[in-house]
């Protein structure tokens, strides 16, 4: 699905990712954990193509294509989806118009005709249920006036609508109460399939109780310093990150 | 006519005036007074506070100070392409004179009259009563210039209690073989409890440089409702000064929509005065500029009377090397208690070289009022742009979507479906 080799990236001249390697196969769920400032969100942003980040080395292959060579929109059209840590409010653009535009741009890229209005509405109705999103929210401006939980549910709703191959969840659990967390995780779990992969970026183990990963990686100082099965998350929860830090030679 | 070189613009203007005067309709004394005041005050340049940013001095200096001739052949097919609303009555004004041959006024219900103002000022007592009255003692040079030299325009009169289902589209066309200068002069008198929608659009035909110095006086009587649109669509040769002086009476509602979508140089002076209580005024504006276009909006809302409400929302989208100006004055005079006055001006600059000068100017002398103003200028929200692109929407489409969203706040207030659709279509093609 995606193969990241020796990825290095910096923001405003500051090196954040320092040679990151990760291999994700179809259907797998990988959790990326790590202390604050370790580069977790940078990884998510770099993969989605945010221009504030400069890739200074390494390569990323996504379904056989050089991901770093693609514009953000082409990455999305190729099937990459980033669920934002802080979803953006866009007053004046309705959720529905936004999604329809996105779906049709993706379809055009794939050489398909625009979606039939009827088919689109049926899809909206079906996918809304996944995250228990109120129909009224779908008609409102994108994320405008949404609560923290509603914004995150809207991210998962969009994910369900766009049917990506690789979903990157950037701290999707941050700011969620336990009920919202359960709804969001439930939505994600229903989207799991043999040909869809997930990279779940999170600071806390809590989310992984609900979205159970196949692999857990610990990111520290811009590198993956430890990988293991899902039990590693529990160990981190118990011991904190200090023992990882102690084991890792200071990079400079 | 012969043009004497080495004359100053004022001298040339005066000579031209003397030459034209015998052929002009109406009150010659009024015209002489206007030209005398104009001479006395001089021609505005950058030193005039009100004309600081969009310097109009060149407009007075152009050799095209001679007025465009009428009687040019304009094909009905060309007019048909400029019709914005198929169901409305159509008044076509070419170079400032109403052309009955191109107009379609038979659709008007009884009680609604559209006439040539040159005729009406002579024969219609209502037109005589109101002509140049709303202007009052205005010493604005463009008002004076128009008053001195205008050859006509339209007089619209709606009788009391007539709520017209049929709107009126006044299509102003500037055209000539050489350069064209015209001074369309309009007077709209809406009697009590009447309702009307008036769409003015401004277009140019042909490649020559045009200058249109339009002046409209509006009288909105008690409880009347008026929707007044100005669609400024002149092409790259079009220069336009557009003055609207309106006075509104008790319980009336005067709503203006100013869409500045094209034109090389556009200046709008929109002045609204409440003369009686419990009246409302709404001022909506949307400006889309690219290239080196200039649009300068000056609005004045004069709360001279208690218990009136005004609401103003102007938005601007500026690209390339365009220049925008917004100057919104609100006066709340000492006796105008219980006034509600709101003003918002927001702009986005799409390029490094686009420029906007915005100045809200509230002068409040009453103490029991609710007034607010807000202004903001920014770039396109890069985070929003990335968010859209991260969902597969291409950069151009994403920019379009965001500009459309920005404009939506104004567009959503447009009650006329055809106009709203027209504006949305123009918005979608702004980037092409």
Secondary structure elements and their pairing?
The complex is a heterodimer of chains A (252) and B (432).
Chain A: E1 2-11, E2 14-24, E3 29-33, H1 40-48, E4 53-62, E5 65-66, H2 72-77, E6 80-83, E7 90-94, H3 95-109, H4 117-130, H5 135-139, E8 141-142, H6 148-162, E9 166-170, H7 178-191, E10 197-201, H8 206-210, E11 215-220, E12 223-228, H9 231-239, H10 242-247
Helix pairs in contact in A: 6-7
Chain B: H1 9-20, H2 28-41, H3 57-61, H4 76-80, E1 89-94, E2 97-104, E3 112-116, H5 117-123, H6 125-130, H7 141-149, E4 154-158, E5 168-175, E6 180-182, E7 185-190, E8 195-205, E9 210-220, E10 225-233, E11 238-248, E12 253-262, E13 265-274, E14 280-289, E15 294-303, E16 309-318, E17 323-332, E18 340-349, E19 355-364, E20 370-379, H8 382-389, H9 395-411, H10 417-428
Parallel strand pairs in B: 1-5, 4-7, 5-8, 6-9, 7-9, 8-10, 9-11, 10-12, 11-13, 12-14, 13-15, 14-16, 15-17, 16-18, 17-19, 18-20
Antiparallel strand pairs in B: 1-2, 3-4
> Assembly state here?
heterodimer
Low-confidence stretches of chain B: none
Q: Distance between termini of chain B? A: 43 Å
Biggest chain-to-chain interface with counts = A-B, 31 and 23 residues
Sheet/helix structural class of chain B? alpha/beta
Outline of chain B: globular
Number of helical segments of chain A? 10
Structural write-up:
The complex is a heterodimer of chains A (252) and B (432). By secondary structure, chain A is α/β, with parallel strands linked by helices. Chain A is 39% helix and 28% strand. In chain A, the strands form 3 sheets. Chain A has a 6-stranded mixed β-sheet, sandwiched between helices. A 4-stranded antiparallel β-sheet of chain A has the order 2-1-4-5. In chain A, strands 7-8 form a two-stranded antiparallel sheet. In chain A, α6 packs parallel to α7. Chain A is globular. With 432 residues, chain B is of the alpha/beta class. Helices cover 22% and strands 40% of the residues of chain B. The longest helix of chain B is centred in the C-terminal third of the chain and has 17 residues. The model of chain B has no long low-confidence stretch (mean pLDDT 92). The chains are: A alpha/beta (252), B alpha/beta (432). At the A-B interface, α2, β7, α3 and β8 of A face α8 and α9 of B.
